[in-house]
Amino acid sequence: MTPTEVWPLFGLRIRTPRLELRLPTDVELARLAQVAAEGVHEPGDRPFLTPWAERSPLERARHVVQGAWAGRGEWRPGDWSLNLTVFLDTDPIGVVWLSATEFAERREVSTASWLGLPHHRRGFGTEARLGALALAFDHLGAAYATSEAFPDNAASVGVSTKLGYEPDGISRDVRDGEVLVSHRLRLCRERWELNDRSGIEVSGVEPCLLLFGAS
């Protein structure tokens, strides 16, 4: 059997005008880890609740590799986290996650992402999120998508606002002994339908539907 026959998610592809989102090979995963090692945000910024990107380059690289392995190993139909590598041409430049719990019943996904620092402020974050959401809404039957961001994370909030997310309250979490407030944002199907997805192509979904709990 081929790897894609065993794990159909290897055959899943999302193409946007400039990007491709898919699972990486082991060699590509190592290249992605190098992108993380070189930095994913400006020194002094703290955009993540888990401060993995503030660690040493080697620890950042290992975090990326272990996260990819964990996403596959812990996958359950309906309860999953799809770690899609974002490719620009053939170069990995970051990750967008699409996650769900009890998806068959709740029809709700959440998203998160990071890009290598040289690829910020070029519209890639919006394009990658749009591609991931096209999979969720247009092919898996999601009813809602959620996201969270700290108030000072203007880039993440800007992407959500551009795509039609609306305020959905706050979350309070603890990092390094300090209580932090995040903005919760929610995108409903009706607002999603207003987005232009004409440049997005998704392939390889059908064999994956049972794994997503979306059949």
UniProtKB/TrEMBL annotation:
What sections of the sequence does the record tag as coiled-coil?
none
Record's signal peptide: none
**Assigned GO CC terms:** cytoplasm
Q: Which PANTHER family match?
A: RIBOSOMAL-PROTEIN-SERINE ACETYLTRANSFERASE
- What's the protein here called? GNAT family N-acetyltransferase
InterPro entries per the UniProt record, alphabetical: Acyl_CoA_acyltransferase, GNAT_dom, Ribosomal_N-acetyltransferase
Q: Which organism is it from?
A: Nocardioides luteus
> What GO MF terms are annotated?
protein N-terminal-serine acetyltransferase activity; protein-N-terminal-alanine acetyltransferase activity
Q: Which PROSITE patterns match?
A: GNAT (PS51186)
Per its UniProt entry, which superkingdom is the organism in? Bacteria
Ranges for domain N-acetyltransferase come to 19-186
Q: Which Gene3D superfamilies match?
A: 3.40.630.30
